[in-house]
Every structure is written in C-alpha cells, then in structure tokens.
Design brief:
The protein is mainly alpha-helical. The protein contains five helices and two strands. The longest helix has 17 residues.
Length: 123
C-alpha cells in the first residue's frame, strides 16, 4: 500500500500531541505489510508514514500478535479454476496453458511442464 494512504489512515488515530491510540486492526496490518515490502531504511519508512521509531515498533508488534493469534487471516488458500476447452484455456497455439487469476490477470505457460515447475517452486 502506498505510504501516503497509510499516513492518512494513521492520522485519524492521532491526538493533537501526536499520541496514537486505539488503532484498528486493519490499519496495523497495513503498516506491517508496508513495512515488509519496504526496501529502504527503517528510518525512512517511519518518517514517510509519520510515526516515531517506537510507534512503528509498537504497531508492528500489534500486527504480528494479530497474525499469530489468528485474528487476521492473511494467506488463505485461493482456488483457481482452469477452464477445460473453450476460448482462453489454451494459449500459444495449443501447446501451453493460461491461468486466469482475478478475471483480468493471467499467467501463461508455454508448456505444462513449466506450470508444474512453477507450482513446485511456489509451494
């Protein structure tokens, strides 16, 4: 998620003195996911979202507790349906396979062996 959006959502929980209280679970999870995908220095991240170092630590701890307790289910299994026959099910002249993910996104494999190798690596 973009850091500007996280900053705005965090500002709704700040008092006039800059104290953050009663942060919702979804905002804490956004901070954690943003932190996990941040490629720069830690100090750049917490400055970017408008937190102090200790506020960021507290927020990350809260989000990790939520994940550990099972209150937030993140990486649920999502079933993919592969259409049998018909348009779009086989690409590359009939030699490969195309998986439709979210309706607009697709992954194409030139050979079925590539699909199997991909699934082995991602599991």
């Amino acid at each position: 998620m973009e850091t500007a959006v996280i900053r705005k959502r965090l500002n709704t929980f700040k008092s006039g003195k800059g104290v953050i209280r009663n942060v919702s679970n979804d905002v804490a999870m956004e901070v954690l996911r943003g932190w996990e995908s941040w490629s720069g220095k830690a100090c750049e991240y917490y400055r970017e979202i408008g937190l102090s170092k200790m506020q960021l630590v507290t927020m990350i701890q809260k989000a990790k507790r939520l994940v550990k307790s099972g209150a937030v289910t993140e990486s649920e299994f999502k079933e993919l349906s592969v259409p049998v026959g018909g348009a779009g099910s086989v690409g590359f002249g009939g030699a490969g396979m195309e998986l439709q993910l979210d309706g607009s996104r697709a992954i194409r494999f030139a050979q079925v062996d590539h699909l199997v190798e991909f699934l082995k690596k991602t599991s």
